[in-house]
UniProtKB/TrEMBL annotation:
The name this protein goes by in its record: Exodeoxyribonuclease III
Cofactor requirement: Mg(2+)
Domain Endonuclease/exonuclease/phosphatase: 6-256
Any single Pfam family the record assigns to this protein: Exo_endo_phos
Alphabetical keyword list: Hydrolase, Magnesium, Metal-binding
PANTHER family noted in UniProt: EXODEOXYRIBONUCLEASE III
Superkingdom as given in the UniProt entry: Bacteria
Cross-referenced InterPro entries: AP_endonuc_1 (IPR004808), Endo/exonu/phosph_ase_sf (IPR036691), Endo/exonuclease/phosphatase (IPR005135), ExoIII-like (IPR037493)
Species: Streptomyces sannanensis
Annotated transmembrane regions: none
Record lineage: Bacteria, Bacillati, Actinomycetota, Actinomycetes, Kitasatosporales
Stated family: Belongs to the DNA repair enzymes AP/ExoA family.
Amino acid sequence: MLTVTTANVNGLRAAAKKGYVEWLAGTAADVVCLQEVRAEPQQLPEEVRQPEGWHAVHAPAAAKGRAGVSLLTRREPDRVQVGFGSEEFDGSGRYVEADLPGVTVASLYLPSGEVGTERQEEKMRFLGEFLPYLVELKQRAAADGREVLVCGDWNIAHQEADLKNWKANRKSSGFLPEEREWLGRVFDEAGYVDVVRSMHPDREGPYSWWSYRGRAFDNDSGWRIDYHVATPGLAARCVKAWVERAGSHPERWSDHAPVTAVYER
Protein backbone atom coordinates (compact mmCIF):
# COMPACT_ATOMS: atom_id res chain seq x y z
CA MET A 1 0.00 0.00 0.00
CA LEU A 2 1.00 3.62 -0.56
CA THR A 3 -0.46 6.05 1.97
CA VAL A 4 -0.30 9.76 1.11
CA THR A 5 -1.40 12.72 3.22
CA THR A 6 -1.72 16.35 2.21
CA ALA A 7 -1.98 19.17 4.75
CA ASN A 8 -1.95 22.95 4.59
CA VAL A 9 -0.15 23.69 7.86
CA ASN A 10 -0.94 27.45 7.97
CA GLY A 11 2.64 28.19 9.05
CA LEU A 12 4.82 25.20 9.92
CA ARG A 13 6.51 26.81 12.92
CA ALA A 14 3.14 27.58 14.49
CA ALA A 15 1.72 24.16 13.62
CA ALA A 16 4.76 22.46 15.18
CA LYS A 17 3.90 24.10 18.50
CA LYS A 18 0.24 23.07 18.30
CA GLY A 19 0.51 19.34 17.56
CA TYR A 20 1.94 18.83 14.07
CA VAL A 21 5.11 17.17 15.41
CA GLU A 22 3.06 14.67 17.39
CA TRP A 23 0.78 14.06 14.42
CA LEU A 24 3.74 13.38 12.12
CA ALA A 25 5.26 10.98 14.66
CA GLY A 26 2.04 8.99 14.68
CA THR A 27 1.09 8.99 11.01
CA ALA A 28 1.21 5.85 8.90
CA ALA A 29 1.73 7.89 5.72
CA ASP A 30 4.53 7.06 3.30
CA VAL A 31 4.38 10.56 1.77
CA VAL A 32 3.31 13.84 3.37
CA CYS A 33 2.67 16.92 1.21
CA LEU A 34 2.71 20.25 3.07
CA GLN A 35 1.55 23.67 1.95
CA GLU A 36 1.72 27.22 3.34
CA VAL A 37 4.89 26.32 5.23
CA ARG A 38 5.92 30.01 5.18
CA ALA A 39 9.22 29.51 7.02
CA GLU A 40 12.63 29.27 5.41
CA PRO A 41 14.20 25.83 6.07
CA GLN A 42 16.87 27.36 8.31
CA GLN A 43 14.14 28.93 10.45
CA LEU A 44 12.68 25.52 11.32
CA PRO A 45 13.83 23.44 14.28
CA GLU A 46 15.92 20.46 13.20
CA GLU A 47 13.25 17.94 14.15
CA VAL A 48 10.79 19.81 11.91
CA ARG A 49 13.15 20.58 9.04
CA GLN A 50 14.56 17.05 8.80
CA PRO A 51 12.33 14.77 10.90
CA GLU A 52 13.80 11.40 11.77
CA GLY A 53 12.78 8.67 9.34
CA TRP A 54 11.88 11.08 6.54
CA HIS A 55 13.53 12.59 3.48
CA ALA A 56 12.41 16.22 3.37
CA VAL A 57 12.37 18.57 0.39
CA HIS A 58 11.47 22.22 1.05
CA ALA A 59 10.55 24.79 -1.59
CA PRO A 60 10.19 28.16 0.17
CA ALA A 61 8.88 31.29 -1.50
CA ALA A 62 11.23 34.07 -2.52
CA ALA A 63 8.84 36.42 -0.69
CA LYS A 64 9.59 35.73 2.97
CA GLY A 65 6.72 34.59 5.15
CA ARG A 66 4.52 33.56 2.25
CA ALA A 67 3.45 30.28 0.66
CA GLY A 68 6.10 27.52 0.70
CA VAL A 69 5.58 23.81 0.02
CA SER A 70 7.35 20.70 1.27
CA LEU A 71 7.44 16.98 0.54
CA LEU A 72 8.28 14.34 3.13
CA THR A 73 8.92 10.81 1.89
CA ARG A 74 9.87 7.67 3.80
CA ARG A 75 12.25 6.63 1.03
CA GLU A 76 14.64 8.88 -0.82
CA PRO A 77 13.12 10.20 -4.07
CA ASP A 78 14.68 9.22 -7.37
CA ARG A 79 14.22 12.78 -8.68
CA VAL A 80 13.04 16.10 -7.24
CA GLN A 81 11.80 19.15 -9.13
CA VAL A 82 10.87 22.55 -7.71
CA GLY A 83 8.41 24.52 -9.82
CA PHE A 84 6.85 23.61 -13.16
CA GLY A 85 8.86 25.69 -15.60
CA SER A 86 7.14 29.02 -14.93
CA GLU A 87 9.21 32.19 -14.97
CA GLU A 88 6.70 33.92 -12.71
CA PHE A 89 5.85 31.16 -10.25
CA ASP A 90 8.82 28.81 -9.88
CA GLY A 91 10.26 30.93 -7.07
CA SER A 92 6.95 31.44 -5.30
CA GLY A 93 6.94 28.29 -3.16
CA ARG A 94 3.90 26.76 -4.78
CA TYR A 95 4.96 23.47 -6.39
CA VAL A 96 7.41 20.65 -5.77
CA GLU A 97 7.34 17.12 -7.18
CA ALA A 98 9.30 13.95 -6.55
CA ASP A 99 9.62 10.61 -8.34
CA LEU A 100 9.08 7.48 -6.28
CA PRO A 101 8.86 3.95 -7.69
CA GLY A 102 6.02 3.99 -10.23
CA VAL A 103 4.56 7.35 -9.22
CA THR A 104 5.33 11.07 -9.31
CA VAL A 105 3.92 12.82 -6.23
CA ALA A 106 3.61 16.61 -6.04
CA SER A 107 2.71 19.15 -3.37
CA LEU A 108 0.74 22.13 -4.71
CA TYR A 109 -0.29 25.39 -3.08
CA LEU A 110 -2.45 27.16 -5.64
CA PRO A 111 -2.89 30.93 -5.07
CA SER A 112 -5.96 31.80 -3.01
CA GLY A 113 -7.01 34.94 -4.86
CA GLU A 114 -9.30 37.79 -3.87
CA VAL A 115 -11.98 39.13 -6.18
CA GLY A 116 -11.20 42.52 -7.68
CA THR A 117 -7.53 42.53 -6.70
CA GLU A 118 -4.14 41.69 -8.20
CA ARG A 119 -4.22 38.48 -6.14
CA GLN A 120 -7.09 37.19 -8.27
CA GLU A 121 -5.27 38.16 -11.46
CA GLU A 122 -2.22 36.29 -10.17
CA LYS A 123 -4.37 33.24 -9.47
CA MET A 124 -5.81 33.26 -12.98
CA ARG A 125 -2.32 33.55 -14.49
CA PHE A 126 -1.24 30.57 -12.41
CA LEU A 127 -4.22 28.54 -13.64
CA GLY A 128 -3.40 29.45 -17.22
CA GLU A 129 0.16 28.15 -16.90
CA PHE A 130 -0.48 25.16 -14.67
CA LEU A 131 -3.08 23.29 -16.74
CA PRO A 132 -0.76 22.76 -19.72
CA TYR A 133 1.89 21.52 -17.33
CA LEU A 134 -0.54 18.99 -15.84
CA VAL A 135 -1.26 17.71 -19.35
CA GLU A 136 2.46 17.45 -20.10
CA LEU A 137 3.19 15.75 -16.77
CA LYS A 138 0.54 13.11 -17.37
CA GLN A 139 1.81 12.41 -20.88
CA ARG A 140 5.43 12.22 -19.72
CA ALA A 141 4.53 9.88 -16.87
CA ALA A 142 2.50 7.62 -19.16
CA ALA A 143 5.45 7.31 -21.51
CA ASP A 144 7.55 6.17 -18.55
CA GLY A 145 4.88 3.81 -17.22
CA ARG A 146 4.28 6.02 -14.19
CA GLU A 147 1.23 7.40 -12.40
CA VAL A 148 0.85 10.99 -11.11
CA LEU A 149 -0.60 12.31 -7.86
CA VAL A 150 -0.84 16.07 -7.29
CA CYS A 151 -1.87 16.76 -3.71
CA GLY A 152 -2.42 20.03 -2.00
CA ASP A 153 -4.48 23.12 -1.38
CA TRP A 154 -6.06 23.82 -4.76
CA ASN A 155 -8.05 26.77 -3.31
CA ILE A 156 -11.09 25.96 -5.47
CA ALA A 157 -14.29 24.23 -4.40
CA HIS A 158 -15.34 22.40 -7.55
CA GLN A 159 -19.00 21.61 -6.88
CA GLU A 160 -21.81 22.84 -4.65
CA ALA A 161 -21.23 19.75 -2.49
CA ASP A 162 -17.72 21.02 -1.79
CA LEU A 163 -18.69 23.91 0.48
CA LYS A 164 -21.41 24.37 3.05
CA ASN A 165 -22.59 27.88 2.17
CA TRP A 166 -22.26 27.71 -1.60
CA LYS A 167 -25.13 30.09 -2.35
CA ALA A 168 -23.49 32.91 -0.39
CA ASN A 169 -20.12 32.30 -2.04
CA ARG A 170 -21.00 32.32 -5.73
CA LYS A 171 -19.06 35.58 -6.19
CA SER A 172 -16.21 34.63 -3.84
CA SER A 173 -12.74 33.62 -4.91
CA GLY A 174 -12.50 29.86 -4.66
CA PHE A 175 -16.01 29.30 -6.03
CA LEU A 176 -16.11 31.60 -9.06
CA PRO A 177 -17.55 30.08 -12.25
CA GLU A 178 -14.27 30.50 -14.13
CA GLU A 179 -12.31 28.79 -11.34
CA ARG A 180 -14.74 25.88 -11.15
CA GLU A 181 -14.67 25.56 -14.93
CA TRP A 182 -10.88 25.42 -14.87
CA LEU A 183 -10.87 22.64 -12.29
CA GLY A 184 -13.44 20.81 -14.38
CA ARG A 185 -10.97 20.97 -17.28
CA VAL A 186 -8.32 19.33 -15.08
CA PHE A 187 -10.68 16.38 -14.72
CA ASP A 188 -12.50 16.33 -18.06
CA GLU A 189 -9.84 17.50 -20.52
CA ALA A 190 -6.56 16.64 -18.82
CA GLY A 191 -8.02 13.35 -17.61
CA TYR A 192 -7.20 13.48 -13.90
CA VAL A 193 -9.45 12.15 -11.13
CA ASP A 194 -10.60 13.84 -7.92
CA VAL A 195 -9.81 10.86 -5.69
CA VAL A 196 -11.73 11.85 -2.55
CA ARG A 197 -14.85 12.73 -4.54
CA SER A 198 -14.61 9.44 -6.42
CA MET A 199 -14.58 7.63 -3.09
CA HIS A 200 -17.40 9.76 -1.64
CA PRO A 201 -19.60 10.57 -4.67
CA ASP A 202 -22.92 11.20 -2.92
CA ARG A 203 -22.09 13.21 0.17
CA GLU A 204 -21.45 16.84 1.00
CA GLY A 205 -17.80 17.47 1.71
CA PRO A 206 -15.92 15.95 3.37
CA TYR A 207 -14.69 19.47 4.14
CA SER A 208 -10.99 20.11 4.75
CA TRP A 209 -10.89 23.83 5.67
CA TRP A 210 -12.89 25.83 8.19
CA SER A 211 -12.50 29.52 8.94
CA TYR A 212 -11.21 30.41 12.38
CA ARG A 213 -13.98 33.01 12.51
CA GLY A 214 -17.19 32.23 14.36
CA ARG A 215 -18.12 28.59 14.93
CA ALA A 216 -17.35 27.33 11.44
CA PHE A 217 -15.50 24.24 12.65
CA ASP A 218 -18.03 23.34 15.34
CA ASN A 219 -20.86 23.70 12.79
CA ASP A 220 -18.87 21.91 10.07
CA SER A 221 -19.39 24.96 7.86
CA GLY A 222 -16.35 24.31 5.69
CA TRP A 223 -14.88 24.06 2.23
CA ARG A 224 -13.34 21.08 0.45
CA ILE A 225 -10.32 22.64 -1.24
CA ASP A 226 -7.55 20.15 -0.37
CA TYR A 227 -7.42 17.48 -3.07
CA HIS A 228 -5.72 14.30 -4.17
CA VAL A 229 -5.72 14.66 -7.97
CA ALA A 230 -4.47 11.48 -9.64
CA THR A 231 -4.11 9.81 -12.99
CA PRO A 232 -6.91 7.27 -13.56
CA GLY A 233 -4.73 4.20 -13.04
CA LEU A 234 -3.69 5.32 -9.56
CA ALA A 235 -7.15 6.64 -8.66
CA ALA A 236 -8.62 3.23 -9.46
CA ARG A 237 -6.27 1.70 -6.89
CA CYS A 238 -7.47 3.93 -4.04
CA VAL A 239 -9.00 1.78 -1.32
CA LYS A 240 -9.71 4.46 1.29
CA ALA A 241 -9.74 8.27 1.49
CA TRP A 242 -10.70 10.48 4.39
CA VAL A 243 -10.24 13.83 6.12
CA GLU A 244 -8.40 13.66 9.44
CA ARG A 245 -10.79 16.07 11.14
CA ALA A 246 -9.74 17.03 14.68
CA GLY A 247 -12.00 15.89 17.48
CA SER A 248 -12.44 19.43 18.78
CA HIS A 249 -11.50 23.01 17.96
CA PRO A 250 -8.62 23.18 20.50
CA GLU A 251 -7.02 20.05 18.99
CA ARG A 252 -6.53 21.69 15.60
CA TRP A 253 -2.99 22.64 14.55
CA SER A 254 -4.15 24.37 11.34
CA ASP A 255 -7.32 25.80 9.85
CA HIS A 256 -7.06 22.90 7.37
CA ALA A 257 -7.24 19.20 8.22
CA PRO A 258 -4.96 16.54 6.72
CA VAL A 259 -6.49 14.61 3.81
CA THR A 260 -5.25 11.05 3.50
CA ALA A 261 -5.68 8.33 0.88
CA VAL A 262 -4.43 4.75 0.68
CA TYR A 263 -3.50 3.31 -2.72
CA GLU A 264 -2.70 -0.27 -3.67
CA ARG A 265 0.74 -0.42 -5.25
